[in-house]
């Protein structure tokens, strides 16, 4: 593993099985990998200069200066420092050995003997110092030896506890197995007794069920008989009601004849009274000649009808004209909407290309009153091509910044607009100001007719329409009124065109030529570029057409208003003529009635006399009608008496059948109650039986699982003690186990305690 900036080492200790799991940065790892990481980080747990536990303070105090130096080198120095130091000491020892082994040569010189004596004395001192150090080291190691033996005792006890623990686990599970086996046998016996108790109850329930079905069949049969009898009773009752209705109908017919006779008498009286009144009125009437008055009224009515016919014709003509005008207005409105849609497309293209410019346009349309003079929308909206094929020439001639620029007639308005947009609204917009003197009508240097022989067909200005301020700015800034547009013919003779026409800018079918005169050589220089395809002006709105449509729309509105006024006048005249017509017709009616009244009275009197004779002949004999009705009612009452007798017999039969059915129902209810009681008892016993069966199955499964656990634990215990399957536990283990706790909790507590004590003895090994 490579050391990381933030290394996290985690150790999880499982007390149950005394195992450890290591993690590096929350990922599972091994102890070896952890030790490698610790070594890579130069962490030395056994070095007292780097990690000093409380129980090692005394040992740290006993360290000599040499040992402190070595521990410090290991703690803070690089790994090779201590290795170099060891190698240096080894070299020094070898040097001393070589000095000791030098033979003493007898020489005559006194200096040589002195050198040998000094070396021997130094060697003796070094050996004495080494001996003293070794004695001190042995004295220090006595405590480590005692701690080593104490640690060994703890480890032996841990080993014995770990050997006994599986045997205790096995014994506990074996005892559980015996207890579960006993409980399972008891449950088996209880299940057998419950099954024996259920058999007679089930047989009795079956017998009661058969009896209940027999009673139910009898009840259904009686119900059918009762239904048939009730149906017959219903038929008799319906027949009685029908007879009552027949009697009521006879009485009603008799009453109607009496009422009819009374009405006839009243009508005869009223008719005689009316004839008498009309005859008296006829005697008092005087004859007169009303024909001249009637003729005068007819003449005036004819004149009114002719005038009304003329007015109706005028109204029809005006309505037709109004309908035609409204249809034309709708057509014009549709054309204006189409032009507006084209304008919307141009605005969407502006929004997609220059969002800030579009936001400024929306603000300008809402606030036109903030400016003193006219403000034109961006040129790409204001310019409308007469032919979209020529849009590329205009776009190549006008810069893109000016294409999206607003055009102002006033410098003050432009500065106010830019302050609002750029400073307050943080929008990147362009604006230009049209010249104070208009250049929109500026004349070209030469008429276009003179240029036809060079292939030119128009100047740029004539290819599009634009508001006057925009056109003035373009003529002033870009001289669109003096830039000709040509064809392939122009390109083919371009040298001649440049030399003869003296134009500074020229367009051919696909190229733009810029002509300059050198200030030094006075030579004519020209450069050409390809004309790029148009992006903004390919969508154009015919402003002349729109203005013409709006003018037509206003004319039609005026015409419709005039037609409405004419219709109102004609309608008022119609109402006047209609009132006069009604007056004349009422006058004529009154005159005719005055002339026809005598004849009408005579005719009415004759008709009433005939009606009176008919009514007198239609007299009804009420006594005969009453006798006939009584005879019919007596016959119907005799039939009713027979029906009532039959109905009483049927009712008695129905009551008898209901009594029998009620007795059967009571018997069925009693049997059903007994059946329900037994079924409830059977269900309760059945629930107890299923619970007993489930308990038996659970105990049997638990017994089997405990048996398997016993086998596994016994096998594990033998493996821990290194015993064969047929070998018994040795006596020395039994004797040692007797001195140890007998429960798992006590063993685990004792085991953890011993492990904790043993872990306190760190930094020891058998070499002490």
From TrEMBL:
Keyword Cytoplasm included in the entry's annotation: no
Annotated coiled-coil segments of the chain: 117-197, 226-260, 287-321, 546-646, 675-709
Origin: domain of life: Eukaryota
GO biological process, one term: double-strand break repair via homologous recombination
UniProt key word Cytoplasm: no
Keywords from the UniProt entry: Coiled coil
A Gene Ontology cellular-component term: nucleus
A molecular-function term among this protein's GO annotations: single-stranded DNA binding
Protein family according to the UniProt entry: Belongs to the SMC family. SMC5 subfamily.
Protein known as: Structural maintenance of chromosomes protein 5
Gene: Smc5
């Amino acid at each position: 593993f490579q050391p990381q900036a933030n290394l996290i080492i985690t150790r999880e200790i499982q007390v149950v099985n005394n195992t450890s799991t290591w993690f590096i940065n929350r990922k599972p790892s091994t102890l070896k990998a952890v030790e490698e990481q610790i070594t890579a980080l130069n962490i030395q747990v056994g070095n007292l200069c780097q990690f000093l536990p409380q129980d090692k303070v005394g040992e740290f105090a006993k360290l000599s200066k040499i040992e402190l130096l070595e521990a410090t080198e290991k703690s803070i120095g690089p790994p090779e420092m201590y290795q170099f130091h060891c190698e240096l000491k080894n070299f020094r020892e070898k040097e001393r050995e070589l000095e000791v082994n030098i033979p003493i040569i007898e020489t005559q010189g006194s200096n040589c003997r002195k050198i040998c004596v000094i070396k021997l004395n130094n060697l003796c001192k070094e050996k004495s110092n080494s001996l003293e150090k070794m004695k001190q080291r042995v004295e220090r190691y006595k405590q480590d030896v005692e701690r080593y033996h104490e640690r060994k005792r703890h480890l032996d006890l841990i080993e014995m506890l770990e050997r006994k623990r599986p045997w205790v686990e096995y014994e506990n599970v074996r005892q559980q197995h015996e207890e579960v086996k006993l409980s399972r046998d008891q449950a088996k016996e209880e299940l057998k007794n419950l099954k024996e108790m259920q058999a007679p109850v089930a047989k009795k329930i079956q017998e009661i069920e058969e009896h209940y079905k027999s009673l139910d069949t009898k009840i259904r049969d009686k119900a059918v008989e009762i239904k048939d009898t009730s149906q017959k009773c219903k038929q008799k009752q319906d027949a009685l009601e029908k007879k009552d209705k027949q009697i009521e109908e006879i009485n009603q017919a008799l009453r109607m004849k009496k009422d009819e006779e009374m009405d006839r008498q009243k009508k005869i009286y009223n008719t005689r009274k009316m004839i008498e009144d009309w005859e008296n009125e006829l005697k008092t009437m005087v004859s007169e000649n009303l024909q001249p008055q009637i003729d005068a009224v007819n003449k005036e009515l004819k004149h009114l009808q002719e005038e009304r016919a003329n007015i109706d014709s005028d109204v029809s003509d005006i309505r037709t004209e109004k309908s035609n005008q409204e249809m034309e207005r709708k057509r014009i409105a549709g054309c204006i909407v189409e032009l507006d849609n084209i304008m919307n497309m141009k605005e969407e293209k502006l929004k997609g290309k220059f969002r800030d410019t579009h936001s400024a346009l929306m603000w300008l349309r809402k606030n036109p009153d903030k400016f003193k003079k006219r403000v034109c929308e961006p040129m790409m909206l204001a310019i409308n091509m007469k032919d979209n094929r020529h849009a590329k020439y205009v776009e190549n001639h006008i810069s893109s910044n000016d294409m999206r620029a607003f055009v102002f007639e006033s410098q003050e308005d432009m500065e106010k607009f830019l302050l609002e947009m750029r400073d307050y609204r943080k929008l990147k917009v362009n604006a230009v100001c049209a010249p104070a003197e208009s250049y929109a009508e500026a004349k070209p240097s030469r008429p276009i007719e003179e240029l036809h022989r060079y292939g030119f067909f128009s100047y740029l200005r004539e290819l599009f329409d634009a508001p006057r301020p925009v056109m003035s700015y373009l003529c002033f800034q870009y001289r669109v009124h003096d830039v000709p547009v040509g064809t392939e013919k122009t390109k083919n003779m371009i040298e001649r065109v440049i030399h003869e026409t003296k134009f500074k800018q020229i367009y051919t079918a696909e190229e733009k030529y810029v002509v300059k005169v050198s200030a030094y050589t006075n030579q004519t220089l020209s450069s050409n570029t390809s004309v790029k395809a148009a992006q903004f002006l390919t969508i154009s709105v015919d402003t002349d057409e729109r203005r013409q449509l709006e003018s037509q729309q206003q004319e039609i509105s005026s015409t419709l208003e005039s037609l409405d006024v004419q219709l109102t006048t004609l309608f008022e005249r119609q109402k006047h003529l209609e009132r006069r017509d009604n007056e004349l017709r009422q006058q004529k009616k009154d005159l005719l009635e005055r002339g026809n009244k005598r004849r009408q009275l005579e005719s009415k009197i004759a008709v009433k006399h005939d009606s009176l004779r008919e009514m007198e002949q239609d007299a009804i004999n009420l006594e005969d009608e009453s006798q006939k009705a009584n005879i019919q009612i007596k016959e119907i009452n005799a039939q009713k008496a027979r029906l009532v007798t039959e109905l009483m017999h049927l009712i008695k039969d129905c009551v008898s059948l209901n009594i029998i059915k009620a007795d059967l129902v009571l018997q069925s209810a009693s049997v059903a109650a007994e059946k329900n009681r037994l079924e409830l008892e059977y269900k309760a016993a059945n629930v107890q039986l299923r619970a007993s069966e489930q308990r038996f199955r659970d105990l049997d499964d638990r017994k089997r699982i405990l048996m398997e656990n016993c086998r596994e634990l016994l096998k594990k215990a033998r493996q821990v003690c290194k015993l064969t399957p047929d070998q018994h536990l040795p006596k020395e283990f039994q004797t040692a186990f007797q001195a140890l706790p007998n429960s798992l909790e006590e063993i685990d507590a004792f085991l953890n305690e011993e492990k904790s004590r043993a872990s306190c003895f760190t930094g020891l090994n058998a070499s002490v």
